[in-house]
Amino acid sequence: MTTHLADQTAKPTTTTPKHVTDLMNIEGLLTPGEIEVRDRIAAFVDRRIRPNIAEWYDNAVLPRELLPEMAAEGLFGMHIEGYGCGGRTATEYGIAMQELEAGDSGLRTVVSVQGSLAMTAIAKHGSEEQKQTWLPGMAKGEIIGCFGLTEPTAGSDPASMGTRATWENGEWVLNGEKRWIGLANIADVAIIWAKVSDEDARAAGVLAGPGSDNGEKVRGFIVPTGTDGFHAEAITQKLSMRASIQCEIHMDNVRLDGDAILPKNPGLKGPFMCLNEARFGIAWGALGAARDSIEAAIEYSSTRMQFDRPLSSFQLTQKKLADMTVELNKGQLLALQLGRAHDAGTLENHQISVGKLANCRTAIEICREARTILGGNGISLDYSPLRHANNLESVRTYEGTDEVHTLIIGQKLTGESAFR
């Protein structure tokens, strides 16, 4: 339960909608606290991200100086209770992600990796000592984290991961590789998921938990990145998420104390609980990129003169703008429903998949269509839609591809798993 549930009951508002794209007055469904979060993060984006994002994206630079500023805005571990975290509602977190991704998906991903993945792993699966040790510094941005699940040959099927942790002479020893791990080369701590045999778990005095898979389970480990044998290297020459960092991690006999293991929720349930928090944020965030693209297209078309009249006066342009905005509003209402369910404790996993699948698919189509209104100028970093569309190729892929979420929904509908 969050500390802001008093703000959950929506109150009528006479405030003029902030965005021309708010055709359905969705703002009228928001609480004063939610509007405050929206406006504060939007102001941060206007002040710090919009003036600089074209240069950061062009030069493939993550502006590290932005991270403590994000922390100061309460963005790291925003809806985690206690330990110096914000304790905001899930809906407020989602609204913040929408505003942040209106600036850039890569920079929203920083918050997702730090908060929804690394910090959530410790908050949901860690011991009290682990929470006290790591979460306050991570909330302040003094400690940067990453989340190592995906591997070079284990993406949508994490159960096939090759990373192993063995118990040797009173220590855990990790060996393996991870790929596409956000922030890994600047992180101070990594949450690494590895397979552990039940025999090793018992030898270490760790509960193995029910339902072994061939006598082993996936477990999470807190790994300080300065540990011998741990190496992270940034992946370069990317066409997407250029103002962000994704890395390869190599682990060669990384030795950890016995208390490095996350004691709760053994098995794939552990990382999936974290992924669902990230997927929830994506269902909101992707719409920020879409909204920004529509607004860029509206502004451009109102001043771009063709045949002695503004481009916005043509029927085909207006059809594009209308179609995009209707789809945006549908996605925003879906995201708001997810947020309300999350805050009420009724959100189900398949509902998160509906939001992630539908809103990423909608957002990337909107960004591509918005680019067409900008014509040839739309391929320039002077304008945001194509940058957003390129970023959304990654957003659509990570934390579950379209295919994965389709099968999650299909399993809910039919009761049959089609994954294997």
From TrEMBL:
It holds the Pfam family Acyl-CoA_dh_1. InterPro entries: Acyl-CoA_DH_CS, Acyl-CoA_Oxase/DH_mid-dom, Acyl-CoA_Oxase/DH_mid-dom_sf, AcylCo_DH-like_C, AcylCo_DH/oxidase_C, AcylCoA_DH/ox_N, AcylCoA_DH/ox_N_sf, AcylCoA_DH/oxidase_NM_dom_sf. The keyword Transit peptide applies. Keywords: FAD, Flavoprotein, Oxidoreductase, Transit peptide. Residues 34-142 form the Acyl-CoA dehydrogenase/oxidase N-terminal domain. Its cofactor is FAD. It is an enzyme of class 1 (oxidoreductase). GO terms for biological process: fatty acid beta-oxidation using acyl-CoA dehydrogenase; fatty-acyl-CoA biosynthetic process. Signal peptide: none annotated. Residues 273-413 form the Acyl-CoA dehydrogenase/oxidase C-terminal domain. Pathway: Amino-acid metabolism; tryptophan metabolism; Amino-acid metabolism; lysine degradation. GO terms for molecular function: fatty-acyl-CoA binding; flavin adenine dinucleotide binding; glutaryl-CoA dehydrogenase activity. It catalyses: glutaryl-CoA + oxidized [electron-transfer flavoprotein] + 2 H(+) = (2E)-butenoyl-CoA + reduced [electron-transfer flavoprotein] + CO2. Its EC number is 1.3.8.6. Belongs to the acyl-CoA dehydrogenase family. PANTHER family: GLUTARYL-COA DEHYDROGENASE, MITOCHONDRIAL. This is glutaryl-CoA dehydrogenase (ETF).
